[in-house]
Design goal:
This protein is an alpha+beta fold. The chain is built from three helices and four strands; from the N terminus they run αααββββ. It has a four-stranded antiparallel beta sheet. A hairpin with a 2-residue loop joins strand 3 and strand 4 (120-134). The longest helix has 13 residues, at 32-44.
Length: 158
């Protein structure tokens, strides 16, 4: 399931010690930020079970359809974490996730809200704003590989 030794959530930790244990066991998300990072990793790897299980029931969709909006996730940046520690009941995480969809880079900025119920953190929802940017084929790839966009992430999305 995990192709890179580093976790896609941007923690610079190995995935095997960062988000993978949380994908396998929701109880391991001790903070709202840890749950948010694991949810991002779950979106990267299309791990529907974790995404749905970590969504609070009253706001949870019945299922996800990754095929309707195929994207390549390129990165996650955490801007601010408010509350959401081990002993808190609520928390929020302000972040930007960058992804490639239909040859365009999109940056989704969201302020996610979380709640802890029966010892588990759950995603409630959030306010988000998406900005799209067309990338020139010969420009540098936004994934940071150092390659031209057309020879890197665009190539797999033609």
């Amino acid at each position: 399931m995990i192709n890179s030794p580093l976790c896609p959530c941007g923690s610079n930790l190995p995935c095997t010690t960062c988000c993978l244990p949380i994908l396998d066991d929701h109880h391991r998300a001790e903070t709202a930020e840890a749950l948010m990072r694991s949810r991002y990793t779950a979106f990267v790897h299309k791990h529907e079970q974790h995404i749905l299980a970590s969504w609070q029931k009253k706001n949870r969709p019945e299922k996800l359809n990754f095929d309707d909006h195929p994207v390549v996730w390129l990165g996650l940046e955490i801007h601010e974490v408010r509350d959401g520690a081990k002993n808190d009941i609520t928390g929020s995480v302000d972040f930007t996730s960058t992804y490639l969809e239909n040859g365009q880079i999109s940056r989704l900025r969201e302020n996610s809200q979380f709640v802890r119920e029966d010892g588990l953190w759950y995603y409630l929802g959030g306010e988000c704003n998406v900005k799209r940017q067309k990338i020139e084929r010969n420009g540098p790839c936004p994934c940071g590989s150092g390659k031209k966009f057309k020879r890197c992430c665009l190539q797999g999305n033609l």
